[in-house]
UniProtKB/TrEMBL annotation:
Family designation: Belongs to the GerABKC lipoprotein family.
Spore germination protein N-terminal domain sequence ranges: 29-210
InterPro entries tied to this protein: GerAC_N, Spore_GerAC-like, Spore_GerAC-like_C, Spore_GerAC_C_sf
Coiled coil spans: none
Top-rank lineage group of the source organism: Bacteria
Name of the protein in question: Ger(X)C family spore germination protein
GO cellular component, one term: membrane
Domain Spore germination GerAC-like C-terminal span(s) in chain numbering: 261-427
Keyword check for Magnesium: no
UniProt membrane topology term: Lipid-anchor
Amino acid sequence: MKIKSSSLPKAIFLSLLLLLTLLNTGCWDRRELESLAFVLTLGIDQSAIDNQYDFTFRIAVPGNLDPRGGKGTSAEEMPDTSKVVTVTARSLPEAISLLRTSIERSLDFRHLRVVIFGEELAYKEGLLFHIDHLERDPHFRRTIYVWINKFGTARDVFLINMPVLEAFVTRYIEGTNESIRETGYARPIILHDLVAETEEHHVDTVIPLICINPIIEEEKKDGKIVPMPTEKYRESVKDIIGGEQMEHINRSGGNPLEIIGLAVIQEGKMIEQISGWESRVYSLLRDSYRYGTWTFEDPEVENKTFAVELYRSRPPRVEIDWQKEDPVTIDITFFLEGNVRDIQSLEKYISPETYPLLEGVVTKVIAEQTIELISKMQELETDPFYLARFIRTQMLYKQEYIALDWKKRFAQAEVNVTVDFNLRRPGLVIQPMVIPEQE
């Protein structure tokens, strides 16, 4: 096919345009990895100076990172993979610019995995002043995790952290968040979800609590964790059940840090802390719970327990009679299943006749814990469970939903909790072991 003379200039122009397009491709804003300093974690605390804050950065040392991972980590190895630097400034942008005066490379936040806030800052001023920059600056990803130190500063967390297995701090963060997701003792939250829930009507958000275990902090000597003698450990432990209260867990050795419990955030400030046990109930109400191991008192033998691996079988059913005059009525039903994991008393509970004994204990305890947690939140006029979501689907207009004044109505509500629980499997044995002399 011949090209007409009038079409020839057009063909040449299009060919040149295509060629120029190919030549112009490429990463013109590229930066070599050797010129970047990757910030892995960020801590924000109230400063001793008025109107200033302490910003703590953990910066990776790429040349010392072992890509294989999975090897044991000692205190000597952690500083080699990252360096901790603290800058006091009026704001996060100012701290970043000041930090650049002492770092040989350009700071890069694309690998930032967690932002930790100190307890004092979270209680007094709140988080919104600093989250604004994290949300606004394109260098920060919205998948960053957010934690709060339960009993101290974020900087303390940076200085004491000694992972048991992972040499690379980002793997420690990912693994830790996956662990608390599985146990239900806290709820991992990323920056995007935190901002979305803060801006949402009729709900208050929560943030996981991290803390330093004082027993293990005492065991840290010369950059190593040296487990204390048994007698001293027995003197150090408290008469508590792990996860029931806000206290630390009784343990020795391992990482001094532990994540258990949640901070309730209202209008950007921490207004309350809830324990690990309460966090599991929170997860049931928010429908973020999947499974976990629960321990209950034996129904017939004193000072003995039985353990159940508890699963969510169906989403909770919540019915709210919101159209009537206050107090509104909230009926909550949980649908759970479980597998027996331990019977300390060695009683023969695994039978159709005795299963209801164990099931009755489980339903009673979970219902009581749920009522107790809801009552605690009602006193504060806060609803971190987002129960208003069950009303939202019944309204035609968003304006009607916004005008609901739900938190005040929730604070006066009458709550009924029902637990539909069934034991499914006894484990690898049906009945406990039997000693011949006791038959």
